[in-house]
Amino acid sequence: MELIDLFDENGHKISPGLPAHITNYLIDIDGTVCEDIPNEEPERMLTAELIPGALDMINKWYDEGNIITFFTSRLDLHREYTEKWLAVNNFKHHAIIFNKPRGGNYHWIDDRVC
Questions:
Q1: pLDDT for res 86
Q2: Phi-psi region at 47: left, alpha or beta (left = phi > 0; alpha = psi -120 to 50)
Q3: pLDDT on residue 110
Q4: CA–CA gap between residue 40 and residue 33 (Å, rounded)
Q5: CATH of domain 21-97
Q6: Over the range 33-66, which residues count as b (16 or more CB within 10 Å of their CB) and which as e?
Q7: pLDDT less than 70: residues of the chain
Q8: What's the rounded Cα separation, in Å, for the pair 60 and 91?
Q9: Max CA distance (Å), the chain
Q10: What is d(CA 55, CA 49) in angstroms, rounded to the nearest whole number?
Q11: DSSP notation for the chain
Q12: What is the pTM of this model?
């Protein structure tokens, strides 16, 4: 991944950014790429049904050079199931972030343009 040096209005170096042609996708798992499975039923995580079109779209973005990071409310103890399901279903990705807060109503606040 190629990062570009960025500077604020005063010429001070700030956190680097990605080139304009690369997007950093943060993608939820349950209810977004597969059926919605609650943490209380982890045995279903290995057999989750795909959301139609999700695999093709995510792998297309990956193949175009974009960054694919899954983020999920699944717990760290579900890591093995989650990684196995993604591999069996051939999802290309760079990383997975676990323990996203549950309940929805998300508001992403960041200093970067979404």
A1: 98
A2: alpha
A3: 83
A4: 19
A5: 3.40.50.1000
A6: bbeebeeeebeebeebeebeebbeebeebbeeeb
A7: 1, 113-114
A8: 10
A9: 54
A10: 11
A11: ---EEEE-TTS-EEEEE--TT--EEEEE-BTTTB----TT-GGGGGGPPBPTTHHHHHHHHHHTT-EEEEE-SS-GGGHHHHHHHHHHTT---SEEE--PPSS-------SS--
A12: 0.88
Reported as a single tens digit per residue, the pLDDT across 84-96 is: 999 999 999 999 9
Residue pair 89/81 in contact (Cβ under 8 Å)? The answer is: no
Tell me the backbone φ, ψ of residue 54, rounded to 5 degrees: -65, -45
Kindly state the tokens that stand for 33.
Answer: 């790429």
- What pLDDT sits at residue 114? 55
Distance CA 2, CA 86 (A): 25
Domain limits of the chain?
Answer: 21-97
